[in-house]
Structures are given as C-alpha cells and as structure tokens.
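Supplementary notes for students who missed Thursday's class. We covered one full example, reproduced here. Read the sequence, then the structure, then the short commentary at the end.
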Amino acid sequence: MAEVPPFATKWDQYLYWCARFHGTNEFTKDERNYKIPLANRLVSAREALLGGDSQWVELVRRAIHYRDGEFINNLTDWRQTQTIEQWFQTETDSAALALRLLWNDSLPVRDRFNQFAEIVTAHKVKAPISETAFLHMAMGIEEFPPFRSGRMEMAMELTGWPTPKDAGIKVGNMGFRYQHFLQFLDAVVKRGRERGVEFRDRLDAQSATWCVTDWDPLPTWSDGEKRAFLAYQGKPFTPRESSA
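Structure (token representation):
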C-alpha cells in the first residue's frame, strides 16, 4: 500500500493508522502480548491478598520487576514504583487496605482509584495515575489497560475527543481521568469496528493508540506512508539513503 488516501474526518485518519499497525506481527509481539503475563502476576497478587496470603507483596514486586527475555516492565516509572514498593514492604497493613479498595470489583472504577489515592496520600506516598493504573491491571488487563497521560491525550487531540482538561476533569482526580480514558478506548473500539478494524478489546485499542502516538513507521511501509505518518505525529521525515 503505497499511497495514503484522503480522510473525511479525524477519526478516519486516526483509525487508518491504527489499522496499519493492528494485526501485524510487530503489534502482537511488541505491543500487546508481553503485557499479558506481566498483568497476570498482578492477578495472582490480588488473589493472594484477598485470600489472606502475605505473598502478595512479593508477587507485586515480581510484576514491577517483570522481565521475560527482551521484554521488561516499561509501563511505569521506576522512581515512582520504587517508593510504592518500599511502602508495601514497610507498611504492609496500610498498603493492603489501599489495594483492597483498588482491587474491589464491587466499587465503580473511579471510586477504586480515588479511594486508593486517599490512603496513599495520607501516608505521604506518591502513586501517580500511571502507576495506579498499572496496579489496577490486576482486575484484568484486557478490560483495564495501562495508562500514560501524554500519549493518551495526544490521541484524544488527534481524534477530536475532549482531553480530561477539556472535559473539566481536574488533574488530581485520578478516578475520573481513568474513567475518561476507558470511555475513549470504548469509542476507539466501536468506531474501529465500524470501519473494519477488528479490535478485540480495550487492550487492543490502547496498544494501537500507543503505536500511533509513539512508534516509528514500520520498515515495510513506502516512503510516502512513512512521510505521511511522521507528519501526522508532528515529526520530520528523513529518507533513507540508497547504497551505491
């Protein structure tokens, strides 16, 4: 596919680029699949905590320090998780209470985040939304994917979806910010399927969003596609020099 077609809407353009990544080997291997066994460690940690097993602390630690061959946990900032991990180890009872709220499936998602944040803040521990969303993947990563503010807000702007600020959501309201993110992913899935992009779940939508906002063009694309994609991202295009 050498030429990029004209687009009638922002969503058409965004989902065109999602489709160019979605379903490729690179997408499956490098953006989606490695996250699942990482999240499964958090699922095991939740099961241990709710079952009264003190091994939950070690299981969370293993998720934070996940490594499988070339794949590592790149979903969090180690400086933030280091502080959280230390809190889990030194104030285990308080940390367990906080996680019981974050991992309580009877609470609305926004309340899980905000009640977790209240306890964390009371103990003078920083747990930004990315790290909180990471821990929340224990509830099932396919439904509750990881979150990074910058890239997700870039995707919202590319599609015309209101950013959290546009929607009147305060920076400190993690629960409503994450809920807003999930609503955006649901729109990506729905609109994608309407255009023939068969997203399986929110994790597919999140992964495709990361590709569109962060990845370089795939090496198999034509120069025309590479140029158009980089322009879409706001980056310059440098043609590869041919060898003599």
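Commentary. The longest helix spans residues 174-194. The chain is about 60% helix and 0% strand. If anything here is unclear, bring it to office hours.
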